[in-house]
Amino acid sequence: MKKLSLFALSAVLTLAACKESKTDTATTSGEQTVAASVGDTFTVNTTASTVKWTAYHKGGLNPRFGTTQAAGTFTVENGTLTAGSLTSDINTLTTDPKAVDSAMSDGKTSADLDAHLKNEDFFDVAKYPSVKFDITKVEDLAAGTESKVVGANKTVSGNLTIKDKTVNVSFPAKVEVTESGLTMVSNFTINRQDWGLTYGTEGDAKDWMISQEVDLELNIVAAK
């Protein structure tokens, strides 16, 4: 049994090492001062915007993926994004049915996963109904910085609040501003445990089987 366990652990670690990254890795720090809203206001088009999430089991196995809705505003001065805020209502979180094979999940469906993510096991939406991102800084992407986002031109930093924990995250993004509109595209990975998103108590075997990595893909559209 011990040999089998060691073999299984070795296989998981090998798979994890081989998992091809298709996202940028967000850097994190403590909570920062929110940027002042300076310039013209652009309102996020909730219908046209998408926030996609992907979570995994260890080694990138059995990915689960879906969407949530986002609302908010940005401010722009002299053609440059200066500040902004996004709020995602976790009650709108939906798992794509293609992400859950009921034949391999003891009959569980994507709707069951939705309920699991929204209850006290993870987000506890009855107590914490939303996730919020407040921009703290927007800078030109440093020369030579590689990004998985084609055309990335900015580094966006902001306070990401999940449940009762706020962590500052920074990630590359492609930000385009016109006279009447703004778009922001990014694709980055965070560590869910930075926000205390765990399944069960610390060290619980159920939580161990879930990867700490969560991918977030933002395609945000805003207009005056």
Automatic annotation (TrEMBL):
Ranges for the Lipid/polyisoprenoid-binding YceI-like domain?
41-223
Annotated signal peptide: 1-19
Keywords tagged on the record:
Signal
Which SUPFAM superfamilies does its entry note? YceI-like
Q: Does the keyword Signal apply?
A: yes
Superkingdom in the source lineage: Bacteria
What is the protein's name according to its record?
YceI family protein
Lineage at the top is: Bacteria, Pseudomonadati, Bacteroidota, Flavobacteriia, Flavobacteriales
